[in-house]
Request: fold
Amino acid sequence: MHKNDFSKGPVWKCILTQAVPLTIAQLVQLLYNIVDRIYIGHMGDENNIALTGVGLTFPIVTLIMAFTALFGMGGVPLFSIARGRKDTRRAEKIIGNSMGLLIVSALILTLLGYLFYEPVLYAFGASDDSFVYAESYIRIYLIGTVFTMITTGMNGYISAQGFPGLGMVTVIIGAVINIAIDPVFIFLLDMGVAGAAVATIISQIVSVVWVVRILFGAGMEVPLKVKNIKIEWGIAKGIIKLGLSNFVMQGTNCVVQVVCNSTLQSYGGDIYVGIMTVTNSIREIFTLPIGGIVSGSQPVIGYNYGAKAYDRVKSGIMFNSLIGTAYTTFAWILVLIFPGFFFSIFSDDIGMRDIGIEMLHIYFFGFVFMSFQFSGQTIFQAVGDANHAIFFSLLRKVIIVAPLTLILPAVGFGVKGVFLAEPVSNVIGGTACYLTMVRTMRRRLRNSATSAPTQPHNSI
Reply:
């Protein structure tokens, strides 16, 4: 089908055709993820400690998403490259192996979650008061692990085949249901934090039914087939190798969240853990559009790289860079001008908001450098360069953020040091990632050009 062919038309148009519905989908996914926090943050007198409790579960949720990225999104670039090479059989095996890996890992993670969530939550910085809320949420949330992982991990294969609109609907279905029934369970049935988790599971079940139905359907160029849902080491190894970059990105977020929560608990107590929960939620809002753009560009760039259309790859890199820089600059300005508005979305506590505004200004300083990290990581993943993608994930989070989160508060910055670690890492890590990507891709494309067929130039 012509609309599945990323070798036709201007590259920027191919990317936007993918990115717009993906951005809408991620917007709805964001609402899916944060609506619980919004409702919980307005539960009444207990909202601060309840919000802190839910925030303490983030590292566990992030770890689940890390394995989803490892086995699901890790295969999508390989799938796109295989499609670009017209290797349908290999593409079928990749999508089937991803499904098999997701199912097995989801069952293992669910079991481990129930066995160890209590000591883990206390290790993450829970107090006796906040643990009550964290436990109420995570015990129910874990039931839906398999549904969450399949929905999120396999949805990328729908968009990668040129159907981002269907991928968008996947997210919209679950999010709309979650948003609609959340207040019923939280307030009307008076279930509080537990009600938020129940609503999330129900929405996940509906979403996974939709995704599986679409992928098994005849409308897919490379449909999911039962006979391919297995784990073949040769295919799985390739998925895991490239997926490691996604895993490290998510996994290091988990590490940073743990370090931040435990350090904030030591230097500031539950209120600062709650402020970090709100700050991370606001960051998710503002990284959403740039996330949609890079997600939309990845299958386009991967397809054209596989097809040896190197001029189109260059155009995709340029478009990513320009639009990412423009957007993150705009987002940074918005946070500087309206910090109170964004904080009040998640909490109506005046004392918490006054402190939180100062922390927001620190945390978002130099936000524009995030676009460099996003762009560099995306290109490395799109062309199958797992080593660079993994290294720069580790550099920003493990080598820079985590140590600074521990060091800065201890040398006199106090709780402010925890929030300061993020912008420092953005500047150093983002710049290093982008410059390395540019140098690497110039060399790689120049060396490959002599053996590639002549391609028509498509400028942006």
In short: Residues 8-449 form one domain. The longest helix spans residues 270-306.
